[in-house]
Amino acid sequence: MKILVTGGAGYIGSVLVPLLLEKNHIVTVLDSFIYHQTSLAYCCRNTNFNIIRGDVRDKKILSDVLRDVDFIIPLASLTGAPVCDKNPIDAQMINLDSIKLITQLRSKEQKIIFPTTNSGYGIGQDNIYCTEESILKPISLYGRLKTDAESLLLDSGEVVTFRFATVFGMSTRMRFDLLVNDFVQRALSDHAIVLFESHFKRNYLHITDAANAFLFAIENFESLKNTPYNVGLNDANLSKLELCQIIKKHVPNFVFIESDIGRDPDQRNYIVSNDKINKKGFYAKNSIDAGIIELIKGCQIIKRNNLNFSNV
d(Cα 152, Cα 98) in Å, to the nearest integer? Predict the structure, then answer.
C-alpha cells in the first residue's frame, strides 16, 4: 500500500513508520520537525521511504502528498492538554482544521486511520466502563479538538478511529511528559513524587501496541470502518496510586506521597472497555510491567534534563 503519515516523525510515528516499511508498504512522511528530531534518519536507506519537510496547514503541500496514496494516517497534532492550552490557535489549526482540509482534498477511495484519545470520556462514573457508545465529555481544549476531529471524520466515511489509552514506552522520538514515562523517570532521577488526584483512573497502552493497531486496521479495514474503537490494555485500568505501586516493585527506593494540591487539566478519571476491538481480533499485548522495565533501560540512555523530551 501507499501510505501517507502526517507527523510521522513524532512519538508514535517514529515507531509506526519502521513497522510499515517492514511490511513493504510505500510510506511518505510529512512532518514539520518542530522538535528537531532525527528519529527517522535510519529509515532513509529504505527505497520505499519518502520524507517531506512541511506543514499540514499548507494546502498546496497537503494536496501534493495526498495524490495517489491508499491510506492516510494523520498523526500531526499538538498532543496533550498543556501544549494545546499554551498554543490554542495552533492547536485549532493543526488538530482540527488540518483534518477538515484532508477530508476536503482526499478522494472518496482514500482511507483514513485516525488516532484520537479516550480522554474524551472526561470524568467517568465509578465502576462503569466507558464504551464507544458512552457520551463523550471532553474537558480540555485538546480533548474537544480531538473529539470534534473524530466526529468530522466518521461523518465523512471510509475511516477507522482509535480512541487510544494513555501511551507509554520507548520511542526514538521520546516523550517524558506522558504519565507512565514521567513517573518512571521521576522514580529513577528524583526517587520521589507527590501525587495529586491519586485515585483518578485511566487506561494505558504500550506504544508498540498503538503502532500495531494501525497495521491491524490496514489489513482489516473493511470489517472495521466507519466506527470508533477503544484501544488499551485490558488489565491496566489503573489509578495513579496503583501505577506508582507497580513502579515501586521495579524501583524499590521510589517514594510517593499523596496530596490534595494539584489538578489534572483533562480531569481524566474513567475506566475503559476494549471489548469492541478485542472482538474484531486485536489485543494489546505489552504489559505495564514490561513497559516499566523497558523505560528503566531507556532512562540510562536519555537524561531528561539534557534535552527537551516533551511536547510542551
Answer: 12
Can you read off the three cell numbers belonging to residue 157?
466515511
Q: What angle do CA 69, 72, 74 make, to 5 degrees?
A: 145
Tell me the pairing of strands 201-206 and 237-239.
Answer: antiparallel
pLDDT tens digit string along 67-78? 999 999 999 999
The share of the chain scoring above pLDDT 70, in percent, equals 97
With a cut of 80, say whether residue 150 has pLDDT above it.
Answer: yes
Query: 57: burial class by Cβ within 10 Å (0-12, 13-18, 19+)?
Result: middle
Domains of the chain (ranges plus CATH)? 2-301 (3.40.50.720)
Q: What is the rounded CA–CA span in Å between residue 20 and residue 211?
A: 9
Angstrom distances, CA of residue 301 to CA of 206, 249, 252, 304: 19, 21, 21, 10
Local confidence band at 262 (pLDDT 50, 70, 90 cut-offs)? confident
CA gap 115, 146 in Å, rounded: 9
- The CA distance from 204 to 192, in Å, is 22
Q: How far apart are CA 109 and CA 98, in angstroms?
A: 19
